[in-house]
Amino acid sequence: MTAAEGTRLEYATAPERLRPQIDASYGLFINGEFVEPASNASFVTTDPATGRKLAEVAQGDERDVDRAVQAAKAAGARWSRLKPSERAKYLFRLARRLQECSRELAVLETMDGGKPIRESRDVDLPLAAQHFFYHAGWADKLQFAFAGATPKPLGVCGQIIPWNFPLLMAAWKIAPALACGNTVVLKPAETTPLTALHLARIMQEIELPDGVVNIVTGAGNTGAAVVNHPGMKKIAFTGSTDVGRHIMHSLAARDIPLTLELGGKSPNIVFADASLDQAIEGVVSGIWFNQGHVCCAGSRLYVEECIAEEFIAALRERMARLRVGDPLDKNTDVGAINSAEQLERIEGLVSCGRDQGAVLHEINDDPLPSRGNWHRPCFFTGVEPSHTIAREEIFGPVLSVMTFRTPEEAIRRANSTPYGLAAGVWTDKGAKIFDIAARLEAGVVWCNTYNMFDASSPFGGTKASGFGREGGRHGLRAYVQLAEARS
Amino acid sequence: MSGADRIDVVKTGKLYIGGASPRSESGRTFTIEDAKGRVYARMAQASRKDTRDAIEAARAKGLPKWSGSTAYLRGQVLYRFAEMIESRSEDLAGDLQRTGSTAAAARKEVAASVDRMVSLAGWCDKLDQLLGCRNPVTGPYHNHTVPQARGVIGVVTPAQPRLLGLISMVGLTLVPGNAVVAIVPREAALQAITLGEMLAVSDMPAGAVNLLTGDVDELLEHLGAHGDVRAVLGAGLSKGQRADLRRAAADSVLRPVHCVKFAGDDWVKDAVVSSPWMLDLVVDHKTIWHPAST
Question: Which residue, among B228, B284, B293, B294, would best test binding to A if mutated, counting the most A CBs under 10 Å from its CB?
Fold first, then answer.
């Protein structure tokens, strides 16, 4: 034994333990400053891992949205005519400042949303910064992005984002809009407004012109006010299919472009000839990344029948090693469920799975924290295609495992869903990969990998998962009008 | 009756569904009159059931064959189709003239339609290279985005220009390998009949193109709301029709609705109609990742 035996080693505080400064209350970010909402109403945002109140956040209504739209419209006159290379420099500044602030923003993201710090630190923040950096470089090259056509800005863009990747979704929405010369009114999710508001501060720091980005916090009514404001020249929404449908209805009589990134029930297909160890890791990250609060989560696993028994045993073994708990602990794999409401929905669907006859596999060893919203990672076997858990998006750490015998059957069953966001396929046969990837009805197909994202990689779905792409050259199309395309 | 010596043979126009030419299941017809107000043809008036049958034929018959064809083959089939339009030029011009166009305008529209199809034919094996790309992702992955056929596309063709509008809308939708279910307004029904006659003897797989003549207002929502229709492309729609279509499309499974607004001589410009950004409306971009390391 060493000399240190019996003495307690002194460690420096882990970076993620240094809490960011969180204000007692936050206003709306309109025309470059934080302002009180017209109604003076506010709501509370909490830490889902503890239930503790983090801050009071302004509740915006139609009047505030109108104020934001007027600010965005006024700012647009200058912003859209700014020399594109200068517009680019603001976005590069944003990217740089985000990188510098990434530690505190990662901690804030984890506190407000419940996701493991390892994920906000290694995924959300780097990708958000990359998104601004990538799009910054497009600002002065748009004339080359659309063969034979001349892109023009659309004007004021209304953007509504979800709670699962709050800052990253803000970056996905804001970066391409700004690069293309538009201005923005952004509505963050009700349960996770803080990182967007801190992003607004960064915008002040880098001296982004006032009104180019406006952030109006609130709940569904605030979102509806964004969608229905007549000054909007484009609406972009990421969230549930039901709300997406509602938005498309609301906008039916208006000829403005709409992009929707909605729900999913993505299949992950594992063939017997796959590298099984890698496939297990892919299935794990496919469904248990971010507590399964991922629109493209690989929530339907199809395993080739001849390896099912072995694969399910290995999956069970791997699942048992996932750590559930304090999201600020960097060893945590599965953090807190984002809200009590979402937890209730997940629990309801899990009990529905049991009631309909599927077999639940759950590891019950570690005690869950006594406060906060928690759900253990789990999977179901004995799942029939007609079961609710095989059809409906759960948006939680719950996997439905099914089997197949032939590639044709795998494709048929994978495509047998109204959704079409993402799909995974695991096999070491190259020809099979190309064939199956081409035939899966999904906007993104991950072959021998899963849940990979990049600012240069277009993301988005088909069928009930929506339309339009975000990221890459393709994502720019949603934020320009082409005089040559009269639509 | 035109002259004293001979009885006219009045044409019975039918729908074109799954490669066959059925009457409407509804038994309804409408008439097309010539410029002098005489009945020139009786056309089938499509119903909701006909629309559903056409979508089924497109999904089950036309789409697998057409989307499964190579880009080179699709290009050749569309080019062959341009040859067929050229050889039917006189009929087509005659029909346009009989229902209101001047002789010169009719000839011009037919020529533009042939040229449009030639232009579109050439896109089939180039679209991927312009609209797709490899994405430089951070990490050891090969990542590329490819434009794919969306599937069955609902098309609403304009009342004017009757032939060029029909040929352009159907043709551009076919380029990436989609199957088409087109609602053709009464005004352009004669052109739809001739198009169907040509398609029936062309190399286009049965069901790849389906033509429904009738009332746009009646059929619009059935087309837009059908779960197997993956996108809707409309031209010449009124504000109210566009709203109805978008509402219908939002209801069952969501699908994008693109309403193009061509004005003036837009229809004759290839830079407008036969552009990659029009074709972009009827493709679906798929992004595929694969590790590129050992």
Answer: B284
* Cα–Cα distance for residue pair A224/A205, rounded to 1 Å: 30
pTM (predicted TM-score): 0.95
d(CA A206, CA A209): 9
Total count of domains within chain A: 2
Partners of A303 in beta bridges: A270, A403
Walk me through the domains of chain B, giving residue ranges and CATH numbers. Answer: 11-291 (3.40.605.10)
What pLDDT shows up at residue A41?
A: 97
DSSP string across B118-132: HHHHTTTTTHHHHH-
How many Å lie between the alpha carbon of A391 and the closest alpha carbon of chain B? Answer: 14
Domain span at residue A44 reads 15-262+465-482
Residue B246 · residue B98 · CB < 8 Å: no
Neighbours of A370 (CB within 10 A): 6
pLDDT tens-digit map of B193-228: 999 999 999 999 999 999 999 999 999 999 999 999
**Co-location of A233 and A272 in the same domain:** no
CA nearest to A473, candidates A455, A453, A460: A455
State whether A272 and A124 are in the same domain: no
Ordered DSSP codes for A4-15: TTTSPPP-PPPG
Q: How far apart are the first and last CA of chain B?
A: 80
Closest to A56 in 3D by CA, of A75, A73, A31, A34: A34
The answer to whether the beta carbons of residues B178 and B63 sit under 8 Å apart is yes
Whether A245 is covered by a domain: the verdict is yes
- Cβ neighbours of B271 in A, within 8 Å: 148, 484
Other C-beta atoms lying within 10 Å of the C-beta of residue A41? 13
